[in-house]
UniProtKB/TrEMBL annotation:
Family listed: Belongs to the lin-52 family.
GO cellular component, one term: DRM complex
Name of the protein described by the UniProt record: Protein lin-52 homolog
Pfam families per the UniProt record, alphabetical: LIN52
Listed InterPro entries: DREAM_LIN52
Superkingdom field: Eukaryota
Example of a GO biological process term: regulation of DNA-templated transcription
Length: 133
């Protein structure tokens, strides 16, 4: 068995202070092509303009995002449950209004007069023969 002092020497002998450089593509090939360039572009952005998805947001939207981002997981879950309940209540209300509209016949389409022949050429020929006679 090794002595307690000998164990520290053994662990320190296993340490390596060599600095590994990732500059050589032969030693460290890139596993996903293009990732290094993408990471470099994220660190040094060429332009300081916001991303496309953020350009369409208004100040109220950004404040809402900040508020939601500051919530804890439990608070965020409560917020999601509240939104689900609100969506459910809205669905129930919409269902009642659609049923009401059905009973009041406000959603019924107007009926067209039935024609004797559905082909448009028949109507043109009937007009032509009326003009001749």
């Amino acid at each position: 068995m090794a002595s307690p002092n000998g164990g520290d020497d053994f662990e320190s002998s296993l340490l390596s202070f060599e600095k590994l450089d990732r500059a050589s593509p032969d030693l460290w090939p890139e596993q996903l092509p293009g990732v290094a360039e993408f990471a470099a572009s994220c660190k040094n952005p060429i332009n300081n303009s916001p991303p496309k998805w953020m350009a369409e947001l208004e100040s109220e939207d950004i404040e809402m995002l900040k508020e939601l981002g500051s919530l804890t997981t439990a608070n965020l879950m409560e917020k999601v449950k509240g939104l689900q309940n609100l969506a459910y209540q809205l669905g129930l209300e919409e269902s009642r209004e659609m049923t009401r509209g059905k009973f009041l016949n406000i959603l019924e389409r107007p009926k067209k007069k039935p024609s004797t022949c559905a082909h448009p050429a028949f109507h043109l020929m009937s007009r032509f023969t009326q003009n001749i006679a």
